[in-house]
Design brief:
two-stranded antiparallel ribbon; 10 strands; about 0% helix; about 100 residues; elongated
């Protein structure tokens, strides 16, 4: 049998193709039939932006632990973190540096 597209996705044509996921920060109701069903909620943790600009992952060397449009927070000199990091604890010392303690 057929299954409805899950929350946060849609499918706009008949057939056996997979559902398409809404953009980051957007969601839709179960069983949505088009992109227009995807509505902006907020940028998730690890992302910054707004409805107009869209959500983009925090760049390397920064983090963001709350939903919303706030800017990502820099890890600081001598540290880095993976792109899209969601907590200060993701920040680690670069080669040649030591002693980073989050918090």
């Amino acid at each position: 049998g057929c299954t409805a597209c899950g929350v946060g996705s849609y499918k706009d044509a008949a057939g056996s193709a997979a559902c398409t996921t809404c953009s980051v920060g957007y969601t839709s109701a179960e069983g949505s039939t088009g992109l227009s069903a995807c509505i902006f909620v907020a940028c998730p943790v690890g992302y910054t932006g707004d409805q107009e600009s869209g959500c983009t992952a925090c760049p390397s060397g920064s983090h963001k632990s709350r939903m919303g449009s706030a800017a990502c927070t820099s890890c600081g000199v001598g540290t880095t973190a993976a792109m899209g990091s969601t907590a200060e604890s993701a920040c680690v010392c670069l080669a040649g540096y030591t002693g980073f303690t989050s918090g």
